[in-house]
Design brief:
magnesium (chains A, B, C, D); Glutamine Phosphoribosylpyrophosphate, subunit 1, domain 1; 19 helices; alpha+beta; Rossmann fold; about 30% helix; 7-stranded antiparallel sheet; 6-stranded antiparallel sheet; homotetramer
Chain lengths: ~475, ~475, ~475, ~475
């Protein structure tokens, strides 16, 4: 399960709205719905047509914003961002949207994703005299826009975007317009919606639901949308490559009530669980899922296998950033955090434990142990995705290859390490077919790099993993 | 569903531990596990054998305590309390444990429950010269102990406890001993456990699991346990009445991983769902449960009926106390809070929506509406408990009779009010038999007062409901 | 100088107002003016005629109150309190005003002072069944009122007050009236004022100035004032003893802009400085005062002696509760706090350093050292009060006799300990005559106990010093 | 008096230390001593030789830093900054030191002052492709360094500094060195000191005293100091122009215990007071000074005139950022803030009120009124500087000419506006001679622009006043 990772490094979420008198407040609610995509920092930049008004801070959405502060930056358009947490905490300067001032007009950017040619572009820009105040890839885009030789902002932005390689879902705000762009591979999700006459964009559709907006369509790979007081125009900054949306968005990252590219996340996960039960037959008494992201797959597994679904463990909802970690001493005495087993459910039972993925294996070992201590006679681990053997360069921080348990061990070795009675992974085909995308002229519509090692873009020799950026600085 | 109530008024949770070098820290973790029982305030009083050391504050456990503060009150014994939220917020003075100083020894009390003769006792005590600094029933107990004519603390406490009528699960701490007491009807749950040589008590066993303690047994009605450095002795302050544990602890209040009197809460709820599906046959496409407390019943219903269980709505985990409520204006535009429907799951479907209870009906109406707006063609509401027609005087604040929708309407009228296509309640017998208690010589082992109006104790003319206490002051 | 003490233990301040639509807000401003009298906690209890509404917390006035919170307890009458800081921090329960609820009417008390018979009274009350939730003397008064056999609240209160021995300046609030009382020796200051039709009372007149109230007169020893909607009546609960107002209020404790019993504090301090220069002749180049409380005396000394007054050291205004204390290591390297010498002013100069008092001597030694390191060739310490040889039982916490440097050393020994070139104290007569009270039929109008050992009241064998109360608990 | 201004817009303070194991902590203490120079924000960037480690935030020094946070950025060198408060609050991005990352080495800058050619330089840089993330002049310097064609960092920095016009006192930190620079006119103060083997720099010497460092010398106009592990080298980036240090640093801005260019501030202010008493003879009973900055001058005036110095008003120390402003209603009823008159001192007296300056006149009018209401029969205002008739472009925000009372009124008109019985300003010559600089080959060593309109540098047509920067953005 990716919870171990998610607690350290998460992706980001973006939101934007143009043409609504309550744009700033609605962005606040939109960010609230995207909170699971990043808890380190949150920000909004709005505009009243005169200036760009920033408000951001470290922490959760509810910590950063107050009614008074939001009132101060009221505007008819706004973009927002939630930022993933990094181990070291890189400080307020990296909290987005980034805002760039200029005598010829200002510019704010919210960005989700990771560029693979950021190092090259930075070096290039620095040699021309650019200086960087953040360690964020987003700043590269701003410099490229500014330096572009084209005449209009629109042309400058398209030119700059065409130079980026990797994953990026961006919303750009100026005093006159909001711009939306998605990388040519469509690696990250980005949706377009309407709320009355206002245009809305968000990483996930759950942010549309919270503000009452209607889903219009997904932003297409390579697309560049321009939204002004005169309405919306769709252009392109690049020919779309083969669509390669991140599989992990379906498997564990997005909220179950979101539709990613028209496919509901809960429904897809349930199908993955059904498929798992088709691929493997295990005799057991109960099926349970690691909360929260594996519940849907566990229900599907139970439905298909006929083995009853039970709440085998529950998550402590109140373990947040201010939770006092137990000392090593107390941990050894058995003080639990986050997950508690439901003793009466698992005691004396053969348990099928459904999880969404295994990264380093430490969490899986801990959960198997938890269930066994609670009296489970057998624990069979079934994973609703294939083994992760390769690092991700597109924004999900799943460690370096050296840390990935599946990169260095056979499945049998992994089973032994985590202490399970059996260990099963979903097949790549089983996963792809059951997520159920039908991208015309595309192999499968997904980026499968972390499973297969086939990256949809070039990976440059000095491409930097998200979690390594801190060290660069 | 009782979420509407729970967000305003909840019960409390108590915890105590005697004889462990990390007693204070372990109490912190125990209170963490009981956080769902009260979020208004939290406190710990510990002892190092020399003095009673208090630490308390308004807010959540993680807001009140810091490592430094906990370190300062380190002791070998400690009791703790989480307090339910009240609409007005009655301030720090009511946060427990209450601490009473005296030149002849101090005394701290954590208390869960509500007394039905508090007004009488207070009047009596005031006429003798007592003054009250809180609006809490707990203070009455302290005065009664102090005034008792008996010679030893033990005798004084037993004498005082014998005068109380109603619901009370108490832990008392002095420099020399920890005392545990449960009302003669056993209206509230209270468990006894061991962690190595240390004795532990808690409202729910989930607090044992988090600290690694083992469940020993339930505290019995009318029991008075004395724990000192010489070990534990069990005595009685009253003959036990017929056991009448609150049904709602099973139906919605406790954590699913807790065992209440030896019965697992999740398992009981699932059985209620199974029974529901036996009592009513509805043709539908999907079963869904109102998160979090109705998930188990929904799974049981699905299992029994064969209709697939789906995540029909999800709860926004991040809507906490600092969430900025949308203005009326924005609410009308569709800004949602707390619950989001999963559109693709319910659209065009006949939905069975399982909930644990209906109090005023407003929340049910809102959820039915949510599902219909999301495209459900039919919404059938099935409730895993009988209609609530009477107020609770024992600590769960379910409004006055005037506000209870079931007290004033037929089921058909209720169905119309909440806008459902059908509305079904579980039968009283179906509920009692499936929770599955087997109390020898007892009618059913439960307090069913809110359903049947038969209160297990006298109700005095001036008995005060929990939510009315604020006004008294 | 008493700064060392003041930083640990200070007296308290009380404020009350009756009959003004903005009573709560005005109390906030009044407490602001009294902030120097206590920084550990602050509280207000107001009334709208229906109930007593409390609001209190630990910390400074500006930390405890917000506009929203104040708005919530708006009333036409209010009493407030600032509490002195104690080393250990005894927690929120001791923050005043204390509020006592009762079915026959509530009662709130703000109290400045210390009782000498509190232990006796507590023992007596406990034997009758009273229990105590705070370690404050104030609670004793509430119990005595409650237990009094008299018929009316007024008679009960007068009866209770007549049993108290020691120092107390009290304001009591009920829904119907505000009561003001001062101990028979008038040990602590208490003033009465008017703001339009509203009656106001405060420990110091600087609180009248901030709200625009006019000084009417001092509350007299033994007086009991009753203020209701029908106006003010003055009664007595005791025959006044010889007036014995605390000398230290003039010497260092009160704000220089306050008038204590009609005598301005700054003016009195300046006269003490003038007198000092008459009592001792020292050849020197500059006069300087330890900020803030000794500035007035230093100016007086300079004026009389003709030696120019200079800013020889300045106080760091920003060293507050959140200041990070330098490690021992850094302190030894010279990191300063609180006071910085003004090098160019003292370098190569013979300096007269005026301070208000010496308690343990540690601070004086530190300041003398500071000036010498900054280049002063001679440092002559002159103190604007006599040597403190005895503890105070009336509310100013000047340590036990064992810690008082003057109780155990000759002046020459003290001079050597603090490293000064000379050390001079003001004579008792010089002090008394120059504060300038003219109490008819009174020896001097002052309590001089800390200097002379003659206590104006009985001191009981088990009288507890303020700073020892923490330990009792 | 400039208090009205200071509360809105203040200058900044810089600090730097190289070569000390506790560099970060010592910077914290240094910033503490400079807190009066800016209360909006504070920051430290330190280095351990490997990377530049930032820590900054909005608010006071004691709010921004905690021991844990400081520990995390421990280093052997550090620079710090306190930022002046602006009305609107321009947000975290402008809090210094600014940090610029680059693949070829990072760079942090602390800057005090205001450039007069910032708009030109920004336009120039933007046309070359630079983008700006702050509204601070400091960012201009970073861009110029980065773009400079010279080979070494040293040469780049000198080249960049030589392009700046206006006031700037800068400290620059890289992983390898600390650089110190002062503008060619020496408009702002900057001192150099040593603490053992470590080099220290600060805006004022009071920051040396707090850390125990010794003053070595002032940084000279046009100087560029390079400090590395090999020691300190002094170079120049420009020929020094005529020294023109800001007069206001002596008159009201700096702390009295600081020496600015070898002249103690308190001593200089006292001489200004002496000179005032020579320039004007007024018959009066008492002399009083507006706290805190005018106390020294008032003492000097008293000494020279023989009229006794008194504490005529006192400042409320606890009115900080969280103080609840009284409503208009309460203000009209007389609720005071900040200053309270000492009634007994001024009642029935002819008062000489010494202040350091008059800007808009509103505060002076309020204070005169305060004294008259308190009973002063006459109030004579004497100002220890000449009339301010021109705006400042070098960092002290004294409004535009339109708001300056002295720019638009005769002294008699001003007297009438503020309601004084007489109004006297110090002569320019009297001020300059008594501050007492003796700069060889310089007219007077001071910038007198705000008094005389003679600016020591060119003022460009689009030079932006500090308080107008917010609007630009």
């Amino acid at each position: 399960m990716l919870a171990e990772i998610r607690s350290l490094n998460e992706e980001c979420g973006v939101f934007g709205i143009w043409g609504h008198p309550n744009a700033t407040q609605l962005t606040y609610y939109g960010l609230h719905a995207l909170q699971h995509r990043g808890q380190e920092g949150a920000g909004i930049v709005s505009t009243d047509g005169e200036a760009l008004l920033p408000l951001k801070g470290e922490g959760m959405v509810s910590e950063v914003f107050t009614p008074e502060k939001i009132e101060k930056i009221a505007g008819h358009a706004a973009i927002g961002h939630v930022r993933y947490a990094t181990a070291g905490g890189s400080g307020i300067e990296n909290v987005q949207p980034l805002l760039f001032n200029s005598t010829t007009g200002s510019l704010a950017i919210s960005h989700n994703g990771n560029l693979v040619n950021a190092t090259q572009l930075k070096g290039h820009l620095e040699r021309q005299g650019s200086i960087f105040q953040t360690t964020s890839d987003t700043e590269v885009l701003a410099h490229l826009i500014k330096r572009s030789g084209y005449a209009t902002f629109e042309e400058k932005a398209k030119n700059a975007l065409s130079l980026l390689k990797g994953a990026f879902a961006c919303v750009i705000l100026t005093e006159e317009a909001m711009y939306i762009a998605l990388d040519p591979n469509g690696l990250r999700p980005l949706s377009l919606g309407k709320l009355g006459d206002a245009w809305v964009t968000a990483s996930e559709t759950c942010a549309f639901d919270i503000v009452g907006a209607e889903f219009v369509r997904s932003v297409e790979p390579g697309e560049f949308l321009i939204i002004t007081k005169d309405g919306m125009r769709a252009e392109r900054f690049a020919y779309p490559a083969e669509r390669s949306i991140c599989t992990m968005e379906y498997v564990y990252f997005s909220r179950p009530d979101s539709d990613i590219d028209g496919i509901n996340v809960h429904a897809a996960r349930k199908r993955l669980g059904v498929q798992l039960a088709k691929e493997v037959q295990i005799e057991a008494d109960v099926v349970t899922g690691v909360p929260d992201s594996s519940i849907s797959a566990a229900i599907g597994y139970s439905e298909q296998s006929g083995i009853p679904y039970e709440l085998g463990m529950i998550k402590n909802r109140y373990v947040g950033r201010t939770f006092i970690q137990p000392s090593q001493d107390l941990r050894e005495q058995g003080v639990k955090m986050k997950l508690s087993p439901v003793r009466q459910v698992v005691k004396g039972k053969r348990v099928i434990m459904v999880d969404d993925s295994i990264v380093r294996g430490t969490t899986s070992r801990r959960i198997v142990n938890l269930l066994k201590e609670a009296g489970a006679t057998e624990v069979h681990v079934v994973i609703s995705s294939p083994p992760i053997k390769n690092p991700c360069f597109y924004g999900i921080d799943i460690s370096t290859a050296g840390e990935l348990i599946a990169a260095n061990n056979t499945i049998e070795e992994m089973r032994e390490i985590i202490g399970a009675d059996s260990l099963t992974f979903l097949s790549v085909d089983g996963m792809v077919q059951n997520i159920g995308r039908t991208d015309p002229g595309s192999k499968c519509g997904h980026c499968l790099a972390c499973f297969t090692g086939e990256y949809p873009t070039n990976i440059y020799p000095d491409t930097v993993l998200p979690h390594e950026k801190e060290k660069v600085k």
